[in-house]
């Protein structure tokens, strides 16, 4: 009878004690979260309640297993399994705690600096994301190593592995040269402040926003909802445009090809009126000038400003559309057109047609040397 009750008491007691401790800890964290709404730490720590209960259960059962006398023929296998569960759940809990602390630190920093320095907030966010990934990778490697060391065969093979570590390191370095290069490039991007999550970039002619940065690749979310995934080493070896570098304010241009008779002064007044009705314009500056001329048209450029890359796009399209609509309604002669009328002859001259019937005024006269 004792052989039956003892395992039930040990296993049942471990389960009940784990549930009670888990419920009490979760209750304390929930109350702390309600009392301190200014910090998300306590709410984030609640995400670790499952690995926390696994650690408690594995530790309690592993410590009392020898007294339970459960499955005595498989004592070694059961004990090793409980040890592996304990190591894995402890690593899982450590990752959750580290993520909660890092996320809380970033949230406090972002809330106090978002309005004053949004560029620095994006930089810290990038660094925090990569640091969390590095910590998770290190904890995972240590946990796997600890699990392997629980097997006697692995401990015996440790000496031979250390003896061949030099050769294996050289082979692994050559085989994983590209991967290691991307990893170092990822660390360089994180702490070198080259590109950050949320930055607006132009890469290979594609305009988009940096959505994700890892140790090996970077994802750019384009304006048409596509995702471009690139190795991070590209950003340390190739030139690219970062529109969010420094201040997010931007200057944009709008071009029109118009007839030489276009009313430039009226266009300047109309540009001012269009910008005053555009909420995306930041009011810093604007102008309108003629930048080029051809025999049939002239190139007119409008210069406008906005607070960031998204707004400058909105300002440019509204100015382009509004000006073309106004020209078509008020000054249609200013729009470019193809002239198919006969050339105007000087007074007193007659229109002599050639033998082929083409008016002399339409013929192209060449230099005598070219005839």
From TrEMBL:
Its main location: membrane. Gene3D superfamilies: 1.10.287.1260, 2.30.30.60. The chain crosses the membrane at residues 6-29, 85-109, 130-151, 157-176. Residues 362-371 have a biased composition (Basic residues). Residues 344-371 are annotated as: Disordered. Keywords: Membrane, Transmembrane, Transmembrane helix. SUPFAM superfamilies: Sm-like ribonucleoproteins. It is found in: Membrane. This is Mechanosensitive ion channel family protein. Residues 179-245 form the Mechanosensitive ion channel MscS domain. Signal peptide: none annotated. Pfam families: MS_channel_2nd. The keyword Methyltransferase does not apply. InterPro entries: LSM_dom_sf, MscS_beta-dom_sf, MscS_channel_2nd.
